[in-house]
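Form 7-S
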Amino acid sequence: QVQLVESGGGLVQPGGSLRLSCTASGFIFRINRMAWYRQAPGKEREAVAVISSGGLANYTDSVKGRFTISRDNAKKTVYLQMNSLKPEDTAVYYCMMNLSPDATRDLYWGQGTQVTVSS
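Output:
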């Protein structure tokens, strides 16, 4: 049974920073892609950042230059460093790990962590 556990969410003022972490446990041979998604109230879930097994990262336009995704394969952990946070970044953030060479298979999700940006 593979489980992903997230931490690091919370309330922060505009311009502040947060660091999210997501650690996988269970029988895992190899992790392909790791990613962070978010879902704001009344909106669809969107991909925020993705990092390949080789460390190549991509970001949605609205977070480029402010967010950084990274991974520690030995710890089976993905991070999301969020700087210069804006109220529009408020959402539930979910991590995702892809455990198959096929990018569409064996997708596992965290339980979600709330990020609220407000003064």
